[in-house]
Design a protein that fits this description.
Order of helices and strands: EEEEEEEEEEEEEEEEEEEEE
Shape: globular
Helix content: under 10%
CATH architecture: Distorted Sandwich
Strand content: over 45%
Number of strands: 21
Radius of gyration: 18 Å
Structural class: mainly beta
Distance between the termini: 35 Å
CATH class: Mainly Beta
Number of domains: 1
């Protein structure tokens, strides 16, 4: 099933059965996110990360004094580390459809990830762009780690620029898991104005200040991404040899449950409590 909504210059197509993912998001017919390239979840334009973002090293951590083992969930690609949570691999129920709005729901009973939860995902278009809203509710009887984030893919050419002002860049191992944090006293553009393809990275930036921007000079368009304050970190994945890259707002560091950085720890969600994050995307002509 594919569901489409539109408003003003914007059009969005989503697939509830494919993790509630976005297959296409365009402005005046131009792709803002990568157009879905194939049937795999890693082929889509954007998916959500819930109830954790990025990797947990070996699926092992201690939560409030109790050892936890989370099995890997990306067979054939990462045999050790569970990644991106469970929402992206689930079939989401359609809760609401309207000409300019979609809302999906996802429930997890507690298999693998031992805490039951409910997630809600809404996409809303207006003449100013897209607002994506993700919520996570703890439906169990004990506190749970609560990771949330968005994983969009963006088209990339030789001139595409990404500008995200952050105070820290994490150095990573080959895993790639965080090893050491390089800090600045003020938030900077770590690309120093150069095209995104001039650096090959798969890491996390901390201490975000302001929105994120992507500039496509050859298409005379620019995108502003405004994450909600809780999404204070940004994972950037810019591999060599692709026509896309990822800039992923999220609320905790990779492997945060293992205490890599208390300032970027995964929040705890008490029974019955709900966490809410949003991401707004708006395009303007250059």
């Amino acid at each position: 099933m594919q569901l489409a909504i539109a408003a003003g210059d914007y059009r969005l197509v989503a697939a509830p059965a494919r993790g509630g993912s976005i297959l296409s998001f365009t402005w005046r017919g131009e792709p803002v996110m990568r157009e879905a390239e194939g049937p795999d979840i890693l082929d889509v334009g954007c998916f959500v990360m819930v109830p954790f973002a990025n990797r947990i090293k070996d699926g092992r951590f201690v939560w409030r004094g109790r050892p936890m083992i989370i099995p890997p969930n990306l067979e054939g690609r990462d045999r050790l580390n569970p990644i991106h949570g469970y929402g992206w691999q689930a079939e989401w129920a359609v809760v609401e459809t309207a000409p300019e709005r979609l809302r999906f729901g996802h429930r997890h009973a507690g298999e693998g990830w031992p805490w039951p939860y409910r997630a809600d995902l809404a996409y809303a278009l207006d003449t100013g762009g897209l607002t994506a809203r993700l919520t996570l509710t703890n439906t169990g009887d004990e506190a749970m780690p609560a990771g949330l984030g968005f994983h969009p893919y963006f088209p990339r050419s030789a001139t595409t620029r990404y500008i995200g002002l952050h105070r820290g860049e994490w150095q990573t191992g080959r895993d790639p898991l965080p090893v050491a944090l390089e800090r600045r006293t003020t938030a900077i553009d770590w690309w120093e104005g150069s095209p995104v393809g001039t650096r090959e990275v798969d890491t996390v930036y901390s201490g975000r200040e302001g929105p994120l921007e992507i500039l496509w000079p050859e298409r005379a368009m620019a995108l502003t991404i405004t994450p909600s304050p809780a999404l204070a970190l940004t994972a950037v994945y810019a591999p060599a040899g692709t026509g896309w890259f990822c800039a992923e707002p999220m609320n905790h560091l990779t492997d945060a449950v293992n205490g890599r950085d208390p300032a970027a720890a995964m929040p705890a969600l008490e029974p019955g409590e709900t966490a809410v994050v949003e991401m707004h995307l708006g395009v303007r002509p250059l």
